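Hey L., structure's done. Input below.
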Amino acid sequence: MQTDTIFVNIRIYNTGNTAVSTGGITVKYWFTQEGIDASMAEVDDSRILPSGKDIKTGTTAGVSVLNCSQDRLLTAGFGTDVLQPGEYIEVHLRIHHTSWQSYNKYTQTNDYSFGTQSWFTQWNKIGLYYNNSLVWGIEPDCSQPIPTPTIGFAMFEKIKKVLNYLQ
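Output:
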């Protein structure tokens, strides 16, 4: 499955009996970088439900580089609100390349955190952390060697055309 944009939609439930500070909550989504431009993250929406409290302003998202076969990490944090028992955070995130060139495509089927679900479900390939400790999910095995980058023939032809144009 190739796409210009990776959509990441997550719900984080407080199933306990006490309130939880959202400032300690972080989620992580692992993926691989395809294309030649850097990736960036956007927060489309972030709310505490069922109240509907908008927490988008306090929600942060960023992409970092990893030394792992899953070489990129989307990390999101949730500001300084409080998640009461029975409430949940619903966040809608997007990952895309810094340029919107048509040759920049993500292949999601090789992404650790990618799933084919069409609705929210428990998915242990997304990490949930509280105060930097993993409380849900399974991190990918980063002991795997990093694949050697290769330039496919189509990309080589594009580079060659650019080089020919610059001569």
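The helical segments are 153-166. The longest strand covers residues 39-49.

-- N.
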